[in-house]
Amino acid sequence: MAAALSQGARDFVALAVVGDTEEPLVPCGACRQWIVEFAPMMWIIMGNLKGKMRLCRGKELLPLAFTEDYLRKQENDG
């Protein structure tokens, strides 16, 4: 995602994360922050090599994310 953003990409539709794991692989914490900042409505497809899958929107991966909306709310509440 960092490479795509550095090249100017901004209209993301979906991201797949797949690994040789027992449960569907999920994006790491740093990736979740990038996803929620730049593509909160992007579909995240999480899977493993055994065929297990999960699907969610980017914004669902990081509750209480540090976003522009969060900062705006802090200013208004402060």
Content-based structural category? alpha+beta
Mean pLDDT: 89
Counting DSSP E segments of at least 2 residues, the number of strands comes to 3
Kindly report how far apart the N and C termini lie. 34 Å
Which spans of ≥5 residues are poorly predicted at pLDDT below 50?
none
Quick summary:
Helix content is 32%, strand content 22%.
Plain-language structure description:
The protein has helices at residues 2-6, 29-38, 68-77; strands at residues 14-19, 43-48, 53-57. By secondary structure, it is an alpha+beta fold. Strands 1-2-3 form a 3-stranded mixed beta sheet, with no helix packed on it. The radius of gyration is 14 Å and the shape is globular. It is built from 3 helices and 3 strands; from the N terminus they run H-E-H-E-E-H.
Descriptive labels:
32% helix, 78 residues, 3 strands, 3-stranded mixed beta sheet, alpha+beta, single chain, 3 helices
Any chance you could write out the topology, listing elements then pairs?
Elements: H1 2-6, E1 14-19, H2 29-38, E2 43-48, E3 53-57, H3 68-77
